[in-house]
């Protein structure tokens, strides 16, 4: 079985100096390899094909046969790297906490420990009969978060 670390290293060498980066790599026992990449802007299909050829060239198919698929981390896929989070600062994300709470929020900040988000929720406000919509800003550590996805509103 081909080591995913070697695949990632080969891909990172090829992507060096571009705005693209490796998000993840999986390999099945049958050597079916899937390499996910993303970019600070966008990923063209030509870039995936070029990266696939470059990575394949570094491995000997006669020594060990494999199937390599290079794909862009698609819309709606989980964010896996800090760079993906930073790319979406100012945008809307869907956050699912380990506790099962799911929320739509604006991503305000991201660092090595976690994220800061803001969202609106109804709260009792002194002097008002009904609950009012209030913007809440909260910080969550990555170990509190089950998944985060980019949210696109098609309205």
TrEMBL record:
Keywords attached to this entry: Cytoplasm, Ribosome biogenesis
A GO cellular component term found in this entry reads: cytosol
The record's Pfam families line, in alphabetical order, gives: RimP_N
Q: What is its main location?
A: cytoplasm
UniProt KW Secreted keyword: no
Residue span(s) of domain Ribosome maturation factor RimP N-terminal: 31-75
Compartment(s) where it occurs, according to its Swiss-Prot or TrEMBL record: Cytoplasm
* Alphabetized InterPro entries for the sequence: Ribosome_maturation_RimP, RimP_N, RimP_N_sf
GO terms for biological process, alphabetical:
ribosomal small subunit assembly; translation
NCBIfam families reported for this sequence: PRK02001.1
Its annotated function is as follows: Required for maturation of 30S ribosomal subunits.
Which HAMAP family has this protein been placed in? RimP
Q: Which family, according to the similarity comment?
A: Belongs to the RimP family.
Protein name per its UniProtKB record: Ribosome maturation factor RimP
Query: Per the UniProt entry, what species is this protein from, by scientific name?
Result: Alistipes finegoldii
Taxonomy-wise, where does this protein's organism fall, top ranks first? Bacteria, Pseudomonadati, Bacteroidota, Bacteroidia, Bacteroidales
